[in-house]
Structures are given as structure tokens and as C-alpha cells.
Fold this sequence. Notes:
Elements (H helix, E strand, L loop, with lengths): L5 E6 L2 E6 L10 H14 L7 E6 L3 E3 L4 H9 L8 H13 L5 E5 L2 E3 L1 H8 L2 E5 L3 E3 L13 H8 L2 H10 L3 E2 H6 L5 E3 L1 H16 L3 H13 L5 H17 L1 H12 L9
Parallel strand pairs: 2-3, 3-5, 4-6, 5-7, 6-8, 7-10
Antiparallel strand pairs: 1-2, 8-9
Helix pairs in contact: 1-3, 3-4, 4-5, 9-10
Amino acid sequence: MTIEDIHVEQRNGVRTIRIDRPAKRNSLARPHLDALRELLVSYANDPSVRCLVITGTGKAFCAGADVDEWAEAEARGELDTYGWTDKAHAFVQLLAAFPSPTVAALNGSAVGAGTDIGFACDFRIASASASLRCGYTGMGYSPDMGGSWFLPRIARPDVAKRFIFLNERWSAQDAHAAGLVSEVIEDNAFQEHVNRFADRLASGPSVAFGHTKALLVRTLSATLAEQLEREMEAGVACGHSEDGQEALRASVEGRAPQFAGR
């Protein structure tokens, strides 16, 4: 599926998905969620995608659900069945499990599901003018799209509860102090910084990154013995990769490795 509100850009090994609905603050209706999910399915095994960036156009990163579509579903008596949440959950599961490093470039405000997209990424780089707000409780709802799973893994329990319960608008600086974003960059340097950071990730050992992400996700539910066994299996796979072999050659030859992402 292709959709005019979502644009894809490629630079070296960096694939950028840009939500381009500035008049709607980059909110997501069901067709957008379908398109995003299908993009991730196609990119997951694409060797040219060594880093994935998600960002928005204009003053918003993503305002979450499209409230007009939401209101129409409620007016028809279809709120429980119109499928937005199912589609959002399918998308965010793929994003959280994406094998290459992921970066949420928070160019502006993130609300509700927009924050969850950021939380599902490995890194959240915020512009100085960006902000985060839970949104769900302000609409009388509890979090979905993984917010209740991601937040306790990112921030202290009391921080997560305050962010959700009080529905405060947190500046990028406040969000950074609370651990919700990785770093805050001045607006005039934001895009250049995101590009440099993504380039560094894309030039790294992609196979090792993929195994590392899988290990980190599973470690919270594993025993030490189980995790050590998984580490051994991952290490063997990395050692047989082109990147692993290149790194060993480079070490012997006293030079920096040139990783191919394989």
C-alpha cells in the first residue's frame, strides 16, 4: 500500500519514514496504520535498511489517532469494532521488534500514540521545541499502543504514572530530564544531528545490532542461564557474519573495520 500522507526517503543505509499530514498534526487514521505496517514488513529483511528513522512534517511529530475518524466511528456506534487499535498494535509490535536500529526524530509535539511510536524506537532525539503529552487520560482513556509496556521500561514507575495520570505537556527538556527522550537538539541543528546519528548507526555491524536488540528485549523475562545460552548462539552467528569476519581481519591488520551490514 502507498499513501500520499506518508513519504519514504533513502540516504545511504538510512531509511526515513515521514508522516506528512501537518494540517492534521500528523495524526493517524486506519489507512496510515496499514501503510506503516506494510512498510515495516517490507523493510525488516531489506539489507539496504540499516537504520530506520521515523519523523513528521511541520510542528508535530504525531498527534496520535485521527480524532475525526474516531468521532465518526463513535457516531455510527462502531467505536469498539472500527479497528484502529488492532491496526495500531500490529504496527507498534513490528516497530519494537524491527531488527535494525530505530530512531524517532521528534521534530515537534507528540501526543498519545505519537509518544508510543517514539517509545517503541531504540532512540528518541527531540528538537528543542518538541513536547510530549500522554493524551489518553485527557480523553478519559487508559494507554494503548504499548504505552503501558514501554514506559515502565524507560522511566521510573512514579515518572511513568505522573506522565500518564496528569496528562501534562512536557517540554523536550523536561522529557529528557525524566528519561523519556535520549537527547535534545536545538531546532536549527536538529536535522543535521539526526542525519549524523543515523549514519553512524547505519555504518555499524548490522548483524550484531540485530542480535543485540533481540537479546535486550528477551533479557527481562529470562534467567541468567537462558540469557547466556542465547548470547552464545548470537555470538556464533555474529562470528560467521561478513561483518564479524571483517572486524577480525581489521583488528589483525591494525585498521578500522568497514562493515557491510551482512
